[in-house]
Amino acid sequence: MQFRDLGLQYAALKSEIDSGINAVIESHSFILGKQVSELEEQLAEFVGVKHCISCASGTDALILPLMAWDIKAGDAVFVPDFTFFATANCAMLRGATPVLVDIDPQTFNISCDALETAITKTIADEKLRPRVIIPVDLFGQPAEHRRIQEIADKYKLMILEDGAQGFGGSISGQRACSFGNAAATSFFPAKPLGCYGDGGAVFTNDALLNEQLRSLRVSGASIVSKYDNISIGLNSRLDTLQAAILLPKLKALRDYELDAVNDAARLYTALLKEFVVTPNIKNDYYSCWSQYTILLENEAVRDGLKEHLKNQNIPSMIYYPMGLHQQKALISTNTEDTQFPNTDRITKRCLALPMHPYLNKNDIKLITGEIIRYLHV
Ligand SMILES: *Cc1c(COP(=O)(O)O)cnc(C)c1O
Questions:
Q1: Is residue 354 in contact with ligand 1, taking CB distance under 6 Å?
Q2: pLDDT-based confidence at 330, cuts 50/70/90?
Q3: Taking the C-alpha atoms of 161, 167, 173 and 179 in order, what is their torsion angle to the nearest 10 degrees?
Q4: Is 57's C-beta closer than 6 angstroms to any atom of ligand 1?
Q5: Which is deepest, 97, 288, 295, 350, by most CB within 10 Å?
Q6: Mean residue pLDDT across the chain
Q7: 55 lines ligand 1 (CB under 6 A)
Q8: d(CA 60, CA 216)
C-alpha cells in the first residue's frame, strides 16, 4: 500500500498523459508552449478568478506576489505556525519577518483570534510594518477566508492565500485559490493536483498584478520587449511538458477525483470516529483532502500506532512533527514571549493516513481495522 498512489492514477490516465507528453516533444515548444496558456485558462476558470500565472514551484508562487508588492525588510508577514516551511520561507527570502500565529485546534488552520492579537501586538510594538497575511488551506480545508478578509480590511493588510494543499476545496461553493488579493498553489507530485516534477501557479483578479507576475517570472522582462527589462525577477516558468501532464489530471480532478477523496474521507470517519479524533470540516466547507489527519490521545499512542501500522506495511506520516516556532531558521525571528499551545499539542498527536482518489474501500477497512486493533490492546 502507498501513502499517495501516483501509479494507480497514471494507470487510469496513461493514454492522455503519454500522448500529451509526446505532442510537446514533437512540437519542440518546451517553454511557455500553448499547453501552458491552455492550462492557465482552465485553472482560472475552475478556480473562478480572472488570471492564473503558472510558475516553477509553489514556493515561487508565494514569492512572486511578495516581490510584486515590494515586501521587504521591516515588513511583518503573518503566517500560521503549523504549516509547511515554505509559507514562512517566502517572507524570509524577501528579508521580511514572518510573525507566527497559533492555530485553531479544530481545523488546524490559522486562528483568527490569535491572528488579530498578533496584528495588534505588532502595531503596538512599532518595530515592524504589518503588510501581509498568508492563510494556509491546511490538509485541504480552506482557512476561514471570510473572517480573515474582514481582519485584513480592518488593518489594511494584503492577503496571499497559500492554497498549495487546498486546490479543489471550497467555502459555500467559492473555490480555494480565489480568496484574498492573490493565491498560490503547488503542483508538487503529492499535492491534490500534482505534475511530474516541480510546478506552481498564482491566481488573482488583479489585472496589474497579473501583468507584474508575467514579467517577474521571466526575470522582469517587459511583456512588449523581451530584452528591455523593467524589474528584477526570477526565472520561474512551468514547463510545457508539465502543463501537458496537468491538463488530463485537472480533468480527472474535477470529473471524479474530488468526489473520490471525499467518499474515502467519509468512510474513514464513519469507521474511526468512536476511537480517535477525526478531521473536523466546518459547515459549508469542502475539503480536497490533501491529507486525512487523525489525532491520538498523546505522543506515545501516536508513535506506537505509527510503528504498528508500519509493521503491517501501512504507511502513515507525521505532518508536521514541529511548529515553525521550533525550527532553527525561524527561532531568531520569534524570540518574543509568544506561545503556541495548539500547535504544540497537535504536533504531538497528529497522524496522517493514506489518502488519494484511488484508495479503495478494502484498504480503508484494513487500515481502520488495524488502528482499532492497536488501540484496544
Ligand atoms: C508544498 C507546499 C508549499 C510549497 O510548494 P512547492 O511546490 O513544494 O514549492 C507551500 N505551502 C504549503 C502549505 C505546502 O504544502
A1: no
A2: confident
A3: 10
A4: yes
A5: 288
A6: 96
A7: no
A8: 11
- Tell whether ligand 1 has an atom less than 6 A from the beta carbon of residue 198: yes
φ/ψ region of 43 (left if φ > 0, alpha if ψ in -120 to 50, else beta) reads alpha
pLDDT digits (tens, 9 = 90+) for 171-194: 999 999 999 999 999 999 999 999
Residues 264-275: tens digit of each pLDDT? 999 999 999 999
Residue type at position 21:
I
Distance 115 CA to ligand 1 centre (A): 21
Neighbours of 202 (CB within 10 A): 31
Dist. CA 365 → ligand 1 center (Å): 30
**CA-nearest residue, atom 1 of ligand 1:** 164
Exposed/middle/buried for residue 192 (C-beta within 10 Å: 0-12, 13-18, 19+): buried
Grid cell, residue 104, equals 485553531
Does pTM top 0.85 for this prediction? yes
Helix H, strand E, coil C: the string for the chain is CCCCCHHHHHHHHHHHHHHHHHHHHHHCCCECCHHHHHHHHHHHHHHCCCEEEEECCHHHHHHHHHHHCCCCCCEEEEEECCCCCHHHHHHHHCCCEEEEECECCCCCCECHHHHHHHHHHHHHHCCCEEEEECCECHHHCCCCHHHHHHHHHHHCCEEEEECCCCCCCEECCEECCCCCCEEEEECCCCCCCCCCCCCEEEEECCHHHHHHHHHHCECCECCCCCCCECCCCCECCCEHHHHHHHHHHHHHHHHHHHHHHHHHHHHHHHHHCCCCECCCCCCCEECCCCCEEEECCCHHHHHHHHHHHHHCCCCCECCCCCCHHHCHHHHHHHCCCCCCHHHHHHHHHEEEECCCCCCCHHHHHHHHHHHHHHHHC
Residue corresponding to grid cell 509553489 = 58
- Surface-to-core class of residue 244, CB atoms within 10 Å of its CB (0-12 exposed, 13-18 middle, 19+ buried): buried
CA of 166 to the centre of ligand 1 (A): 10
